[in-house]
Each structure stands twice: as structure tokens, then as C-alpha cells.
Amino acid sequence: MYRYLDLSRQKIGHVLSAALLLALGGIAETAIAQTTGTSQLSGKLVVTGASTLAPLISEIGKRFESLSPNVRVDVQTGGSSRGVADARQGLADIGMVSRAMKDDEKDLHAFPVARDGVGIILHKDNPVQSLTDEQVIAIYTGRIINWKDVGGKDAPITVVNKAEGRSTLEVFLHYFKLKNADVKAQVVIGDNEQGVKTVAGSRHGIGYVSIGTAEYDESQGVPIKLLPTGGVPASTETVRNGTFPISRPLHIVTRTSPIGLTKAFIDYAQSKAVHDIIAQQYFVPLVN
Amino acid sequence: MTSLHSNTLFHWSTDDFLCWFLRGLAGVAGTIVILIVTFLIMEALPVLQGIGLLRFFTDPSWHPAEGFYNLTPMLWGTVFAMAGSVLIATPLGILSAVFCHYYAPVSLGKLYRRLIELLAGIPSVVYGFWGLVVLVPMIGEIHPPGQSLLAGILILTIMILPTIALMADASLANVPQQYLRGAAALGLPRWATIRGVVFPAAKSGLFTGVILETGRAIGETMAILMVCGNVVQTPSSLFDPIRTLTANIALEMAYALGDHRAALFVSGLVLMAMIVALAIAAEWISRGRIYG
Asked: Where are the domains of chain A?
């Protein structure tokens, strides 16, 4: 095999691979939802947006497809901002937005489907049992850099932050009234699972992830623990009853008032019939 | 191999056909590179026109959501990770090939070569995962947080080692036997033969190996993303976390819009410029000497 690697007689200069860059283009598919005149639904729904919501909507979509065999629900991720942009431009029939709607998004029709909480996580072996909001802010802005200053061991704190554009980051920054430029992190991560793995692998780490994800991983024996915020324990229960302070609504949005297939899907996603799916995904169903 | 035998049998028209076929393939390969660069430039153009190229090197930080687009720390991150791993992997790879060819028993050499080939075949995400659960906690014990330039250099070293080792192996195998016999006839000891005869004869292949491994080190994304910590900063020690340009694209692409997205394409352009600079440097260094 190594013989084929022998390029010594060739000038290889310009072909050193840039193939990575091929993966750059994110191509959004468009599709038009249609309904037939009868009660039988058919067509294709394109749903794009928040990665937090994607697994949930995908599961709801599968059940919806099994109820209406002629319907296809295509779920793509790309963040809440993509959900808003795609819904607005008509690239997607429905956008997924994992936060409260902003003032400049009043042009969209938003439908809450569930709630999610963002919880602070530490390694299980960390003796610190709670942190005040001020302490969390001090840790994330680099004013406290050792656990002994907040009642822990004498060890430097590993601050885990999220990459720019993630909605968990936005929710976190918004609650603690921080700007991302002020955050002094040691590790920057992408999705929730990576955050849990990073804190589980670093005994002096602090991070924040979706409470559903953290609660599930904790129950599976991953060595992490969720800290209470503002005196309220972080759990799906406190998120459901609205007492947990860092929580967020999960929305699906449309550009125009939904009709036909889109309306049928949104009604279904908001109905009690999907509460078990929401709970399975470690989100919290809305009380209605 | 059979195609080589049929070389004596071909008709002119077959040769002609083959010639045009190969020209077509070469044309496609060249066109793809040009298309990629054009695409990158087109996507990056809005932000380049809007805020100018200079701000990508003079802004206070990389916070695209707040309008700051400094790429310099990531450029340094990429350069340091690449340089560190190439510096470690090159002597390791070349010396391991020397061992394989001139010191190891034939059977051991064969086994060793198979192992290196296996190393070359492992997907990068596996290296990254191993680095995250094994290497990073180990480094974290010495100097937290563990996610660091050092972890990146070590992972990259392991990943590019097979490239240089196999290239060196292949070029050592290409050293003409009569050179070695001549050296033996002169009574040269083994290491003197290797240093004075084998290395000069094989240097073009070794050099190509170094260029290839450097290219791979610059382009690697997934493993680096998992072990380097991805904090945008110019590292001041081996234990500082860094973010490379490739990791920057992979980490933020899915969530980027507007200027932020275009700025990531500028990251891609800068990467492309690094590769071109590497190719030009290779041409310049090798001019008239290495391929001669």
C-alpha cells in the first residue's frame, strides 16, 4: 500500500488537500408543503433551526408521519438564528427557536412546544454544593480562578464556555447579564454532550448545559452534578413549574399564519399526544 | 500491473484516447480547486468589502456576534500546532523508516510497517476521542485544564507520523541497490552509509513526505477540535488552550449567519493562503536541487 504513496517524482505543490473546505457550504433545501382538498394530508414539511429542538421535532415528526403516511417531515439543524432566517425567507416551512422570541421577530408566528432549563454543572467529586449568581459571574469573567475562593479545594477552575451562536450560550449570557467578550474560558465546546463529557473528564471544570441532557447523563452514571441556581434546584420539575430561573421556552415559528399541513403539524406538536416524547427528550411539556 | 504489460501492445489510437482521458481527469481536478477558491472568495466577499481585510488582523478579539473579527490568534494556533507536530513527527518518522530498512530483522520490519499502515487508516475522530478521554485528563493532572496546545501537538504528531513514516519508507526502498553495494564495498559502517549515501539519495522523497505531513497537520479538524479547548487566544505556553482556523470553521459554521458566516469563509481563505504559501515555499526550497 505504501508504494502508492510514493509521489516523489511528481510535483505535489498545489494539490495539498483543501477538501475540508468542501464541507463548508450548508445547503438548505426548500420544499413546498401542499395539502390535497380532502382530509388526507400529504406533502413535505421542512423544519430547520435550533439543535436543542431538532431531536424532539424529529421524533414528533416520525410519529406524525406514521399517522399520515403521505407526509414527510424533514428536520435540519443550524441554530435558532437559522430557524428564524429560514422561516422568514421561506426556505423552511417551520423554524425551530430554542429561546423567547426577540422584539424584532414579532413578524413571525411563534408556537411554544416545551420548556428547557440551562443548568450549571460541576464534576461529581467537586465539594462545592452551590454557587451564588455573583460567584458564577466572577468565575466566568476570570475574577475568581481558584475553587478555594468559593469553598472548594485549592485547584484552578476550568471554565467551559459554548461556541458563539449557540442558544444555550445566549440564554446563559442573558441570565447573568454578561457579554461573550467578557467571558474568560479555558475550554470552548459545541453541543451539550461535549459539554457534559468535558466536565466529566476534568475534575475542576464548570460548565452549563441543557438540564434535560445533564439530568439524563447523571442518571446514567456520568460523574457530573447539577448546581441549584438562585436557591432553586436544577431539575426538569422546577423547569416545568417555572421556578427555575435559567429556563427558556422552545418555539416553532412560521412566517404566515399556518394553514393546512403546517397547521396540522403545529397543532399536533402542541397537543398532549406528544408529551411522552417531550419527556423522553428530557424537556418539560407545557402545562395546558 | 497487467496494464504495464499491455503497454507493448497498444495502438496509437488507444494511446491517443488515454492521453485525452487523462487530460480530462487532470482538467477536472484542476477545475475543482479553482471552483473551491472562487466559491470561498465569493462567500467571503460581502464581509471583505464591508469591513476590509485589515480588520481580520487588527480587531481586539474574535467575537463575531459583537462585530470583532480578529483571526490572528487562530492563525498562530494553527501555526504552532502544525510546527510542533511536524518537528516531532519528522525525525520519528524518518528514523523509524531507517530502523525498518537497515536495522530491524526482516520479519519485525514487515510487522512494524503493517502497524504503521494501520495507524494511517484510523479515522481522525477516533484519535480525537482517545485524546479527549485519555490524553487530556493526563495533561490536566500536570497542568489544568488539559485541553491545550500540547494535547493538540501530541495528537497531530500521532496522526501525521504514518504519512512521513510511509513516505520515508517508500523513498528508502527506492535507493538503488548498487549505491548500497558500493558503500559496502568501500567498507563503510551502516550509519555512515545511511547518512552519507541513503539520505542524500532519498532526500526528494523525504522532503515530499514532510510537505505532505505539514499539509495534513494544517488541515486536521476533528481531533484538534476535541482536544485543544478552542479558546481564541495566542498561546503563551504549551498548556494554554488554542483554537485553530479549521476548528473555528467546524465549531461555528452550523450556527453562523450573515457577516459571521462570511467571516468563517475568510478563515477558509486564510487556510487556503497558508497551503499556497507552503506549496510555494516547497517549490522555492526544492528549486533545482531536490527534484534534480
From this structure: 2-115+248-285, 117-240
Interchain contact, B251 vs A14, CB within 8 Å? no
Instruction: Say if A20 is an interface residue toward chain B (CB within 8 Å).
Output: yes
Residues of B in contact with A145 (CB under 8 A): none
B-chain residues within 8 Å CB-CB of A198?
132, 147
Alpha-carbon gap, residue A41 to B11, rounded angstroms = 63
pLDDT (tens digit, 0 to 9) for every residue of chain B, 292 residues total?
455 555 555 556 888 899 999 999 999 999 999 999 999 999 999 888 888 888 899 888 888 878 889 999 999 999 999 999 999 999 999 999 999 989 989 999 999 999 999 988 898 889 988 998 899 889 988 887 888 999 999 999 999 999 999 999 999 999 999 999 999 999 999 999 999 999 999 988 898 899 889 999 998 998 999 899 899 989 999 999 999 999 999 888 877 777 888 899 999 999 999 989 888 888 887 765 544 3
In whole angstroms, give the CA distance from residue A264 to residue B190.
80
Same structural domain, B75 and B41:
no
Cα nearest neighbour of A20 on chain B: B219
Kindly report the CATH class assigned to A117-240.
alpha beta
The answer to whether A104 contacts chain B (CB < 8 Å) is no
Domain that holds residue B70: 58-291
**Alpha carbon distance A48, B102 (integer Å):** 59
Query: In total, how many domains does chain B have?
Result: 2
Query: Do B33 and B159 lie in a common domain?
Result: no
Contact between B210 and B90 (Cβ < 8 Å): yes
The ipTM of this complex is 0.70
Query: Do B147 and B170 lie in a common domain?
Result: yes
* Cα dist from B193 to A131, B132, B173, whole Å: 67, 43, 14
CB neighbour list of residue B268: distance below 8 Å, 6 or more residues apart: A21, A24, B40, B44, B245, B249
B172 with B38, same domain?
no
pLDDT in the model for residue A194: 82
Task: Tell me how far apart the alpha carbons of residues A74 and A83 are, in angstroms, rounded to a whole number.
Answer: 13
Name the residue among A180, A188, A197 with its Cβ closest to that of B132. Answer: A197
CB contact under 8 A, B166 and A5: yes
Cβ–Cβ below 8 Å for A25 and B252: no
Torsion of CA B102, B104, B109, B113, to 10 degrees: -70
CATH fold of A2-115+248-285, please?
D-Maltodextrin-Binding Protein; domain 2 (3.40.190)
pTM of the model: 0.73
A162-210 pLDDT tens trace: 988 777 888 899 899 998 889 998 889 887 888 888 888 888 899 999 8
- What totals of helices (H) and strands (E) does chain B contain, helices first? 14, 2
Give me the numbers of helices (H) and strands (E) for chain A, helices first please: 9, 10
Convert the pLDDT of each residue in A219-230 to its tens digit: 889 999 999 998
Residue A151: left (phi > 0), alpha (psi -120 to 50), or beta? Answer: left
